[in-house]
Amino acid sequence: MAFATPGKGKETVRRFKDFLAEHNGKPGKLAEVVCDMSPAFLAAVGETFPDASVTVDWFHVVQLFTRSLDQVRKCEARLVKLPSAVRWAVLKAKKKNLTAKQEAALAELEASGLLTGVAWQIKEKLRWVRIAPTLQAARWRLSNFIRHARERVTGAPLLAPVFTAIETVEKQKDRILQRWASTYSNARLEALNGIFKAARARARGYRNTHTFISMIYLIAAPLGDILKST
User: Fold this and answer.
1) CA-to-CA distance for 226 and 213, rounded, in angstroms?
2) Is the confidence at residue 185, as pLDDT, over 70?
3) Contacts of 186 (CB under 8 A, 6+ apart)
4) With bands split at pLDDT 50, 70 and 90, how would you rate the model's confidence at 2?
5) How far is CA 59 from the centre of its chain?
6) Which residues, at least 6 apart from 118, have a Cβ–Cβ distance to it below 8 Å?
7) Using CA atoms, how far apart are residues 12 and 26, in angstroms rounded to an integer?
């Protein structure tokens, strides 16, 4: 089931609750919400679905640190010359799908002591947390990640975006750890979101939000399966 509505605040969550009720759903029995770490959205979910558990999807944890890393890179690039090809190299997994220039850029970055390198190493350490085999192991690894990352950024004003990311993760720690108990993720939705954005780009934007929402429903609807069954 797909649902889209204008806006991104508390009202959108209430509209979804109404949508469920109008389609014979039972909002009070919603068991789990998987989402990002937007304070406004989390507050709205808590008010609208008070009995549902909340899981912060891992995608959004990585996205948070990736964005903070990019902010550090942009700021540091104004002060010093960064290695060539570093912009895209730091967004990829270490030793995975890297070009020769990108591998060289990362090697230079790690050896240089640049703060972009510190931000990148912190982001990469998230992978160690992600592969924790159990909830108990994940709790221990996430706590150590937070402690280690905070030590690395202390006393470096340029790393302020990373510090903010660390603070956000610490605040949402319990919801992030729900990932190890949940069987759900935002993976499919994020994949669809990429398709929706591509459709908007091809159309060079839409005149109004309602037209874009109509396109979202057309793209997300299983029309192929419906046609095959007729």
Assistant:
1) 21
2) yes
3) 34, 35, 36, 57, 59, 60
4) confident
5) 4
6) 152, 153, 156, 159, 162
7) 17
